[in-house]
Amino acid sequence: MARMRGVVAGFGVVCCLGLGSAGCTGSDAVPRETPAGDAVRVLREAADVLMDAGSSKATTSLEMATGGTRVTIRGEGVYDYRKRLGRLKVLLPRDPAGKAVRRPITELLAPGALFMKNRGAGVPADKWVRVDTGTLSDGNLVTGGATDPFAAAEVLRGTWSATFVGRTEVAGAKVRHYRGTADLRQASRHALDANREVLDAAAKGFATARVPFDVYLDDAGRIRKLRHRFSFVNGRRDEPVAVASTTLLYDFGIPADVRLPEDGDIYAGRIAEE
After folding, report:
1. With contact defined as beta carbons under 8 Å apart, do 187 and 150 qualify?
2. What predicted TM-score, i.e. pTM, was given to this entire model?
């Protein structure tokens, strides 16, 4: 149990690295054909297609293997791509005895910010913790235990090589499978607004700015599944740690009413390190 919790803390998942020291298609979007050819161009435009789709449900998973222990953190919720607001319920892994380490954590995703409830570590139960994602060494691509779905899509703006693998299915939807590599520095130059800072921070903070990925687009060009493989240097170890982030998107066009906390609902005290 102690080892598992140590791995989670070292990962920075939801404990937030550095805090202690400070489906169905219901979219009204016009379908876009995404030919197998010109894969780089198609993938660089994938984030724009999500904005056209408006919103969706999302499930996420973050996997890390280190020291012979594998940790998986799962999340699910909704995302509004036009407002770039999301809400996820993130589940930390159970300990080896099968007992939950902590209650699910509610995360609100916003341009340049992450809000967390049920954060623990002395934070009152009715308060939110706010984190400026641009100050995180990974831009919150892994720290929060879930990758922001739109930030994940904007990583593809940095696609510099890609190949069309073939047709398959994801959750009953017919999709085109692409495999490639993106450069976070290039992605940051072409990202929208606050995500430029987020991706730039990740490009500097990860062990490498090159991010291998597999992505599956439906016939409207919308991302149905996206898997990134990030590499970062754990502050307590010298060797890079590999992290696999998988995002599934479905039920496009559903209502996604995400409201951010009022100033009075945000915890202003010191957060204990875990």
Report:
1. no
2. 0.83
